[in-house]
Design goal:
By secondary structure, the protein is mostly helical. The chain folds into two domains: about 45 residues; about 140 residues, Orthogonal Bundle (Tetracycline Repressor, domain 2), CATH 1.10.357. It has twelve helices and two strands; from the N terminus they run αααααααααββααα. It has a two-stranded antiparallel sheet with strand order 1-2. Strand 1 and strand 2 form a beta hairpin.
Length: about 260
């Protein structure tokens, strides 16, 4: 008997395997997402001026809302983390741009940051959308943003102190805290909830706290010292020259000296 001939079947040829979604997974979404992914997405929404909705963030990342709350605690804390991180990056960029050092360099960095915050569409939209909660997030000492802002300024001051370029009149932590509290007062409307943006006066007050005399005042003082004569000079200038004035009317006339008496011859 010859070798058995294999029976031919009408089965189609095998096809390459097809990737199928995992059972229970959601098509088009990553299988896993990390806290960094949440921060990246919320940062994108914040910088674009969009309101952050935790439900939308969870859906886009394939997460449950409970997972996000477990990671960050609350929506306000999540937003605060994003805002604080962006503020730290802003301070670092301005520090790299400024060439001045010492107290003048610290003031220049603060002024550039203040002006950028005033013009920031992201901050403006955040205040418009969140109102009271945004003010609390930005200005509360119990929140995330203000302590990180104070730490940034304190680091700037301590860097100049370590290099021997600046010696503040109070400890750097207290000085940094005062500088940030002034920012809140001059940049943000606490009643209307919005941007006040009075960064020009804010610079003057922060300069005073840092111990910097305004340029106009220094020039005025120098000009005044050059123009104002000394006390001795003023006394000599105000002394009238001697004049031949007549004696007072009630003065007794002086008698001519009596000639000496001579003996008769």
């Amino acid at each position: 008997m010859g070798a058995a001939t294999p029976t031919k079947t009408n089965q189609p040829a095998s096809e390459p395997p097809v990737d199928r979604p995992v059972k229970g997974g959601k098509r088009g979404r990553p299988a896993t997402a990390s806290p960094d992914d949440v921060l990246a997405l919320v940062t994108e929404l914040y910088l674009d001026g969009q309101r952050v909705d935790i439900t939308v963030v969870a859906a886009r990342l394939g997460l449950g809302r409970a997972t996000i709350y477990r990671w960050f605690g609350s929506r306000e804390a999540l937003l605060g983390e994003v805002v604080a991180t962006q503020l730290e990056l802003l301070v670092a960029r301005k520090r790299a741009e400024v060439r001045r050092r010492g107290a003048a360099g610290v003031l220049e960095v603060l002024d550039r940051v203040n002006r950028t915050l005033t013009r920031s569409s992201a901050v403006r939209r955040l205040l418009e959308q969140e109102r009271d909660s945004a003010m609390r997030m930005l200005t509360s000492s119990a929140g995330v943003v203000e302590p990180r802002a104070v730490a940034c300024v304190q680091a700037l001051i301590e860097e100049e102190m370590a290099a021997g370029r600046y010696e503040p009149w109070i400890d750097p932590a207290t000085l940094a805290y005062a500088l940030i509290r002034l920012r809140h007062a001059f940049l943000y409307h606490d009643t209307a909830v919005g941007i006040r943006g009075d960064y020009e006066r804010l610079r003057e007050v922060q300069a005073a706290l840092l111990g910097i005399t305004p340029v106009a005042r220094r020039r005025a003082d120098a000009h005044g010292r050059a123009q104002t004569p000394s006390r001795n000079t003023r006394a000599s200038q105000n002394t009238p020259p001697p004049q031949n004035t007549p004696p007072p009317q009630n003065a007794r006339p002086s008698r001519s000296p009596r000639p000496p008496r001579t003996s008769a011859g």
